[in-house]
Design brief:
The complex is a heterodimer.
Chain A: E1 5-7, E2 10-13, E3 19-24, E4 31-37, E5 44-50, E6 53-56, E7 65-68, E8 75-79, E9 88-95, E10 103-104, E11 108-112
Parallel strand pairs in A: 2-11
Antiparallel strand pairs in A: 1-3, 3-8, 4-5, 4-9, 5-6, 7-8, 9-10, 9-11
Chain B: E1 9-13, E2 18-23, E3 32-38, E4 45-50, E5 55-56, E6 61-64, E7 70-75, E8 84-91, E9 105-110
Parallel strand pairs in B: 1-9
Antiparallel strand pairs in B: 2-7, 3-4, 3-8, 5-6, 6-7, 8-9
The chains are: A mainly beta, B mainly beta.
Chain lengths: 113, 111
């Protein structure tokens, strides 16, 4: 079946711009996670959703980052006033419930110039 | 917090078994050990997980010590395509199952 998909696969933007990154989870998966991976590092947790609500957003670095999942399926990670330090690969994962195995998408590579 | 410790890198000859160790001495009784791998420029790929018993699937075997303080991931016949960074993770069920990745082990399979 279809796995987790993320769009765009690559995004180049300028410092100060607004970007949206999209994640389509595996059908039927109620839990959705966002991670960020900087070069040479392991992924770092940002936020996770159980259904439509953000259950834990403790990993979001600051208030420029926001994520939504309005219908409990697709999620969008939004970054305002991007900075060069936001350049990273943004990974999305989904699982049947919060205690099940997470399956990752291919990631979105964000480059802020 | 149950942290994990892995060697930063390992080599393995093609066709031989690759044994990747992981220490998780502070693991709690209801926490699972998960293994993922990440091939260059791809998202992490789930391999296997276990609680206390040894597990095997089509990709690998997981051996967990009786005291659960360490585990070993075994790739029985490594191929060049198994070259990747392998992450051992203790899943924190009381925190929504979020995964805390360390640096992992960079496995190089050589011909």
């Amino acid at each position: 079946g279809a796995g987790v998909s993320q769009t765009p696969s690559n995004k180049v933007t300028e410092k100060g711009k607004y970007v949206e990154l999209r994640c389509d989870p595996i059908s039927g998966h109620t839990a959705l996670y966002w991670y960020r991976q900087s070069l040479g590092q392991g992924p770092e947790f940002l936020i996770y959703f159980q259904g439509t609500g953000a259950a834990d957003d403790s990993g979001l670095p600051n208030d420029r980052f926001f994520a939504v999942r309005p219908e409990g399926s697709v999620s969008t990670l939004k970054i305002q006033r991007t900075e060069r330090g936001d350049s990273a690969v943004y990974l999305c994962a989904s699982s049947l419930t919060v205690k099940e195995t997470q399956y990752f998408g291919p990631g979105t590579r964000l480059l802020v110039l | 917090d149950a942290k994990t410790t892995q060697p930063p890198s390992m080599d393995c000859a093609e066709g031989r078994a690759a044994n990747l160790p992981c220490n998780h001495s502070t693991i709690s009784g209801n926490e699972y050990v998960y293994w993922y791998r990440q091939i260059h420029s791809q998202g992490p790929q789930y391999i296997i997980h276990g609680l206390k018993n040894n597990e095997t699937n089509e990709m690998a075997s997981l051996i967990i010590t009786e005291d659960r303080k360490s585990s070993t991931l075994i790739l029985p016949h490594a191929t060049l395509r198994d070259t990747a960074v392998y992450y051992c993770i203790v899943m924190r069920y009381n925190q929504g199952g979020k995964l805390i990745f360390g640096q992992g082990t960079e496995l190089s399979v050589k011909p």
